[in-house]
Design goal:
about 325 residues, Rossmann fold, alpha/beta
């Protein structure tokens, strides 16, 4: 541990401010989450060097779908740097992951139609353009050997990817990284999963702090369903995961998570459903981003609401 004098810290902080004042801006990170998420960008002030972001939700809420819309936008900002956005996908293969990203970018209603070969000519052209665009972006993958089903994806350590492989993958040429998702890292298999999760959380924090900023996806517990807005204590395995985060994003779809909906409520959200992204940061405070889950296009989109208004969430 080094010794630093307050005079040196004050000098560095003065230099930091003077550099920022030459180009003042609300979103001052080295990258951002893309044009589709202006409120999230403003709230987080962008993506900052050497920070760890945790994205968590209850199972099957759509966190992987939300996260998959982000890497192409960040990779676009990495063009020309010689660095890569690196995706560790443990629940799906690289083909499945890139198909999902391309479907989102192309605005394909019912992405299952891609695998069925049932796109219209216009949709096919949009899909091919999205594939070409993503193919030209600086993105690299480290992946599991096969796609996992819903049950397999909930088993701790159920992948062939170890922390050692992740560390080596991220050790150089990394602009930003995404781990989808943490509970499948092979090191968690067997034994005391809580202790192993705590140790893994600490290791991932060190990678973010010492190598490059990144995002880790993890689950909230099923037991937290129907208990209001989720918090750090709801993170599966160990709340150390949340405590280690510089930025914590908690995704909630209240209608989806409420199992006692009336027929009127079900009809109300038949195609578009309100969602919340709860934001906590050590440096930038906290808040909420209001979004819509579009069931046709299978994606999340920010919504701008009048001051003082909130979406019609179920009670």
């Amino acid at each position: 541990m080094g010794i630093t004098r307050s005079s040196d810290v004050s000098r560095r902080l003065r230099e930091e401010y003077e550099a920022a004042s030459l180009n003042p801006k609300e979103v001052f990170g080295y990258a951002n989450f893309g044009e589709a998420f202006p409120a999230l960008n403003a709230m987080t002030a962008g993506i900052h060097p050497n920070t760890l972001t945790i994205l968590a939700s209850r199972p099957k809420v759509g966190k992987s779908q939300f996260a998959s819309s982000v890497p192409p936008e960040i990779a676009r900002q990495a063009v020309g740097t010689g660095l890569y956005v690196k995706i560790i996908t443990l629940e799906t293969t690289v083909k499945t992951y890139q198909r999902r990203m391309a479907a989102t970018a192309a605005g394909i209603p019912n992405p299952k139609a891609i695998r069925a070969g049932m796109l219209s000519p216009a949709q096919r052209d949009a899909y091919y353009r999205a594939l070409d665009w993503i193919g030209e972006l600086p993105i690299e993958y480290l992946s599991n050997e096969g796609d996992l089903d819903e049950v397999e994806a909930l088993l701790f350590g159920n992948s062939n990817v170890t922390l050692s492989k992740i560390r080596e993958f991220l050790s150089k040429d990394t602009f930003w990284w995404l781990l989808d998702h943490m509970g499948l890292v092979s090191d968690l298999k067997g034994g005391d999963t809580t202790t192993k999760t705590l140790n893994l959380a600490n290791d991932l924090q060190r990678i973010a702090n010492q190598v490059c900023a990144g995002m880790v996806i993890t689950h909230l517990t099923r037991d937290s369903m129907g208990k209001g807005v989720p918090g750090i204590e709801s993170i599966s395995g160990s709340d150390q995961v949340g405590k280690n985060a510089d930025v914590l994003l908690l995704l909630q779809r209240p209608y989806f998570e409420n199992r006692n909906l009336s027929p009127e409520d079900i009809e109300l959200v038949k195609e578009r459903e309100p969602a919340i992204l709860v934001f906590h940061s050590r440096d930038e405070g906290s808040g909420m981003v209001f979004m819509i889950w579009d069931k046709v296009k299978v994606g999340f989109y920010e919504v701008v609401l009048p001051d003082g208004k909130t979406p019609p969430f179920p009670r």
